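Handout for the seminar on molecular recognition.
Each group receives one record of this type.
Step one: identify the two inputs.
Step two: read the structure output and locate the region that could contact 2BA.
Step three: write two sentences on what you found, then compare them with the reference statements printed after the record.
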Amino acid sequence: MKLVIAIVNNDDSAVVASELTRENFIVTKLSTTGGFLMVGNTTLLIGSEDRDVPRIKEIIHGFSKTRKCVTPTDAALGRGLMNNGMEHEVTVGGATVFVLGVDEMEKY
Ligand code: 2BA
């Protein structure tokens, strides 16, 4: 068994989660924040059989778009971070995916 952890853009998270659910994968959505841009993103947890991981990755890849963001954000500057005029653009996403082995999963 595997645990797929996918960090996706907030704007893509609803469609990614609903496409996964439509194919009967079980998804938990967490509201998270990227440490670099300090803006919200969404982390999806999907527990699955090993054989389903390629399809899960395909769905995540298919519905996650890349975006350009200027860093640091106003939100980060609002927290007192200084960029000394070194503003530059970064490409975010589509998705960052980790696949972990699971020793046990139980439901009570
Ligand atoms: P953030 O940490 O806010 O990063 C947003 C984007 O900023 C990254 O996009 C990358 O293009 C750039 N970036 C991040 N750290 C950087 C650094 N130290 N120097 C220069 N540029 C940097 P993505 O790579 O697509 O990552 C999107 C979000 O996925 C990240 O948001 C973070 O929440 C998560 N993530 C990505 N890689 C991760 C990792 N290895 N471990 C944990 N979370 C990760």
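Reference statements: Helices lie at 10-22, 53-63, 74-78. The first strand starts at residue 2 and ends at 9.
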